[in-house]
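Field reference: "sequence" (input) and "structure" (output). Example, Damage-inducible protein DinB:
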Amino acid sequence: MTPLPYAQLIDIKRWADRGLYEAVARNFSALSPEDQFILLRVLDHIHTVDRIFQHHLRGLPHGFAAARSETMPALAALAEGAAAVDDWYGAYVGGLAAAAFDEPVDFVFTSGKPARMTRGQILLHVCLHGTYHRGNAGALLQLRGLVPSPDAITDFLEAAA
């Protein structure tokens, strides 16, 4: 497998994550406290999973007992942290040799169950997981009559053209 599809998926993730944070920041005050909490929980979950798998790729312990933070971070802190982790994934993919995408990584899920995934599978998981939950956040915004950010690969390609 060549690095190109992974690099492009990470670029799309970075673009979509930043767009979602911008849309949430633009509309946050228009939401009820309950909706604000739900959006923060979704954003925190995406970010925490990204960080957990970042640590797996680096071979380092992550220190999370669950796929969410123990205390809810503020929106600005989440946005800053997500941008930094997305940038890390971009640099990571850019520096990975083609053969390394098929290299297995052993780790332990937060449930305590041992696991093994290739580096490529981890990258795909991070991208697909984020897409799913950005959809949750976008649906909540739409239910409240607010405009979410574009999130599709076709939107990314159109914006890049």
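The chain has one domain: 3-149.
The chain has a mean pLDDT of 95.
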